[in-house]
Amino acid sequence: MGIQLLANEVASQIAAGEVVERPASAVKELIENAIDAGARFINITIEGAGKRLIEIADDGAGIAGEELELAVTRHATSKLSTSAELFHITTLGFRGEALASIGSVSILTVTTRQADAPMGSQMRVEGGMIGTVTSAGAPIGTVVRVENLFYNVPARLKFLKSDSTERSQIDNLVTRYALAYPDIRFHLKQEGKISLQTGGRGDRRAVLGDLYGAETARKMLEVISDSDGIRVSGFISPISLTRSNRRELTFFVNGRPVQDASLATAVLQAYHNLLMVGRYPMVALFIDMPPEEVDVNVHPTKAEIRFRSRDAVFSSVQRAVRRALLAHSPAPGLETGSIYQGGWGQESTATSNTIDPAWDFARDLQTQPNPPEEPGEWEEPASTPTQTPLPGGVPLLRLVGQLASAYLVAEGPDGLYLIDQHAAHERVLYEKFMASRGEGVPSQALLKPAAVEIPPAGARILESELPVLSKFGFQVESFGTNTFLVRAVPTLLSGIEPGAALRVLVEDFEEDETPLAAELEARIIARVCKRAAVKAGKILSPEEQKALLADLENCRSPRTCPHGRPTMIHLPVDLLERQFGRRGAR
Ligand code: ADP
Ligand code: MG
Questions:
Q1: Mean pLDDT score, 208-224
Q2: How far is the CA of 486 from the centre of ligand 1 (A)?
Q3: Which of 137, 179, 207, 476 has the greatest CB tally within 10 Å of its CB?
């Protein structure tokens, strides 16, 4: 086949593929157009996860009737005219291809009216075929309706994820713009239900409250810094508020949401050592700098950008986050008093509980009252040698006590065992859970059903997974916008805070969009058990210590927690002998 020019229709579908990859990308472009048009209110309606309908109504400047046809033509824009301007972009759009692209893969209707026009105008584009402009009654502003997205690109439809995932993407996206533009009122309705709405009062913390609930909003730390012409503002979570993935790391550069690995790295480095492994902060940072410092013309979706001085941006972000963290959270170790006295100025003198570290240690080592007298459990294996441990199991252990409120100390026939109480309890809960799964996990009704608020994106996913939850002994139902009512929790977890349990579950659903059912179940259970397991730092009574140890001994895989980390460290007697110089080289 010789070289030939692609038919217009094919070329536009190829181009459209770059801009409109999924329903959320169309929503993004249309929101950006509304923002560029100076809208104060953006009302978004989604049906059929965005495949049946995306409608975005704004009260912005509108489009002149005689320019409507141009607006849906590729490379037609009101935002840019010379190539020099490309390096000084102050609008979100500039490529002039969003409406054309969306129009080539859907049935697009634009209805619009400018303030001084007596009538509105309307036009329809069907699979790239531009119709005629008609006049229509319309309020000031623009309504863009996108119906049957990808109806003429069936291959693209097949690549979309589940409806709940696509809906959740849209929620995430709108959430971000709402945070970035607190002056604009956003309404999002998905499948007839209000999914999120903000007040447009210009207060970002209020938007955080609208989106994540008042409690989370109150906890978030504010970041404000301005140096070298780079302004960094926004909110970051305190170290006590974390997620299991990086999805809540949001960056806007000059009002534009961007994906940039180095910004994420800068933030994570600022949190360095403050978070547990595998936990990530929630961050919404807005970075503003002169437009000529940023090249936004890197990618059709405009999600990638290039900084002229990347290092300066990196260190500004890192410094700003670090400073906010230090300002808001007490330095670790402050409470332990004496060591820091003098070094921390007035704060340390305010700390009255000066504890001698040695005493502290002694208090935590809670030894059993009279262990050696009674023939303890551990003598049994000696007399009944048939009870040798299974491979990977543990021998019967004699409890010595608890150490540092975090470890159990035990003696086995072959040496000393240090057991991580949290990891051990995780394992115990997990195996009990898995064992009871076949006949239905026993469930316990809460005395008072708990209302739990979940961020919009998580809420969409949770809604679709409610039947799965009931299999695990949770009884949860939808209860208004992004709120759920927990009526019962698995008996095994009766002590857990229902809100915490539910949030943990949502994190897990979010992690993996289409996991295998069995794998998903095991992972959810592991995750819930982790949350429910006794924490390090909790003093256990001798009875609790004993019970935990006995339960652990009964586990099939007692040596690791469900996430694969060790539950115990074994110090064999011969190692001890070598360390004390009793054996081997002198
Ligand atoms: P771009 O935003 O890159 O200019 P688009 O294809 O998204 O390209 O839009 C083309 C043009 O249509 C814009 O430049 C703008 O003039 C006009 N337009 C699009 N959406 C709106 C809207 N919601 N309100 C006012 N004008 C709009
Ligand atoms: Mg645009």
A1: 86
A2: 45
A3: 207
